[in-house]
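Box 4.2: Ligand-aware structure prediction
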Amino acid sequence: LTRQLSTIGFIGLGNMGGPMAANLVKAGLAVRGYDLATEALDAARANGVQTVGSAGEVCVGADAVITMLPSGRHLLECYGDGVITACAPKTLLIDCSTVDVNSSRQAHALATEAGLYSVDAPVSGGVVGATAGTLTFMAGGQPDAIALGSGLLAHMGARTVTCGGAGAGQAAKVCNNMILGISMIAVSEAFVLGEALGLTHDALYDVASTASGQCWALSSNCPVPTTSGPVSPASREYQPGFAAELMLKDLRLARDAAAGVAATSLGVHAQEQYERYVAEGGEGSDFSGIIRWIRDQGDAAPTTPTTADPRETHS
Ligand code: NAD
């Protein structure tokens, strides 16, 4: 199933899709793009993408069609509204958006019924990775479809991990980001507790980053500035990075995916905390900015333990 994919359709040319399409142009491919937003189309044109007036037009004559859309609803609308019918048989559809697993599986089914190849390949790496072409793709679908798309993905990313069948890429993405959301809250709580106990950020960082508290949220995206730690959004007033509302989106997807099938109490708790952080001023900030919200909650917390320490009653 190896064949040259040289004419590529691209639907959704926003913060992520825009630079991803630009990297395909840089790799010498003919890219035809569509977006609902005029500004996105203008920016894509400046990067060498040939823009057209509808999702269907993108697909005519395309060897592969990539989507990078906000949600599963948008994906299914696009597929239903022209993409599936406009594609020639055996065209490869790659959805790089982060969407719910059910919508992803529905999109795969629509494609397969129409004789098309289909891959879900959500990404990690953010706008920085999309621009630099260093994204990680988490791929789900038939192995031959993933193999067919792998060269194309290599123009936009550094790594593709094959995760399994239809929807497996989305499943991997949602599980990974649930770990990230929970661990960012854990790291933030530890720094806020450390502050209350008179510990410097440097001391806690130097211990935890080389001990069992080590994790990406601490070592690569530390929610406080430190001397020996990374330069992270905390050093620039929590400018993203990875915006809090995108973390909230992923935690909602994790909650919905878990409903009735898995007990993810910390995942649900993390989603509720990000819900409040985003509603109470966190929107537009990096997700590590939740440490400020956690610190603010402390003002209302009791300052003395509510239960007496039993050791103290025997003196
Ligand atoms: P964005 O809002 O910047 O871009 C989405 C684009 O899709 C917009 O330009 C919008 O006009 C367009 N669009 C919506 N409906 C459309 C339709 N029916 N037809 C054509 N175009 C349509 O969002 P983004 O930041 O580029 O994110 C895209 C996807 O990537 C999301 O699923 C997001 O969760 C995921 N993601 C984003 C990041 C990030 O850091 N931004 C990181 C990883 C994954």
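In the box above, the bound molecule is nicotinamide-adenine-dinucleotide. The mean pLDDT is 94.
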